[in-house]
Amino acid sequence: MKSLPLPKGLEEKNKDKLIKEDRIKKEKNTSEIYKKDGSYYERVLEGSNVIKDVCIDNELPFNIPDSWVWVRLGNVAEILRGGSPRPINKYLTTSNDGINWIKISDAEKNGKYINSTRERIIKEGINRSRFVKSGDFLLTNSMSFGRPYILNIDGCIHDGWLVITKYKIAYNREFLFYLLSSNFAYYQFCKNVSGSVVQNLSIDKVANSIFP
Predict the structure, then answer these.
(1) Residue pair 57/63 in contact by the 8 Å Cβ criterion
(2) Cis ω on the peptide bond leading into residue 7 (within 30° of 0)?
């Protein structure tokens, strides 16, 4: 049976709910960064229309080769938040065909890769979580926020993770890991986190970070 589309009002309501929960990125204007007369400018676009040009020299702490460009991470990669099926105990399984349930405790403190998980969930949990693939990057988004890991496994992530995917058009995997591990990245994440006690990184804040 062919499914019917949601009424527009209900579709927008569901979309607003997902944005509020930081499950999807809020639609916004795109931008491109260019150099002119020794300074860098960001051109903000709405479709093909130019809204404004802004000098961003104060955001750029070092020079890059002329053949490189500065970009907002969200313009060259997809950034998404994890989700947790609840109650989680209902979805956990010991079956060998279960889906890897990737938790922060599966990552070594000073490690680079996530190679295995201690727990798995049933396949029905995928629709209530975020499925990620080997080669994707995970970022811790609370407490010790901004710590990057490279996935060597497929699985699902909870809402304590952000995933960075579809980045290969712009970045080599090793170089992106170096960038995300840098003091420059951490400074931007610290500047962009919200919350006075438990600090959190959101999709938009990571997407707005600028990198060569």
Answers:
(1) no
(2) no
pTM, to two decimals: 0.82
Closest CA to 190 of 180, 176, 200, 203: 200
Domains of the chain: 8-211 (3.90.220.20)
Find, among 162, 165, 210, 153, the residue nearest to 185 by Cα. Answer: 210
Residues 6+ apart with CB under 8 A from 173: 135, 150
- 199-to-84, 174, 190, 192, 202 alpha-carbon distances in Å: 19, 27, 9, 10, 10
Distances 152 to 106, 115, 138, 173, 175 between C-alpha atoms, Å? 12, 5, 11, 12, 17
Q: In which order are the strands placed within the sheet that holds 137-140?
A: 78-81, 161-165, 137-140, 148-151, 113-114
Nearest to 155 by CA among 88, 79, 81, 103: 103
Q: pLDDT grade, residue 208 (50/70/90)? A: very high
Fill in the amino acid letter for 144: S
Among candidates 131, 141, 116, which has minimal Cα distance to 85?
A: 131
| Strand boundaries in the chain, DSSP class E | 30-36, 39-46, 49-55, 71-72, 78-81, 92-93, 99-102, 113-114, 119-121, 130-132, 137-140, 148-151, 155-157, 161-165, 210-211
Lowest mean pLDDT among 16-30, 87-101, 195-209: 16-30
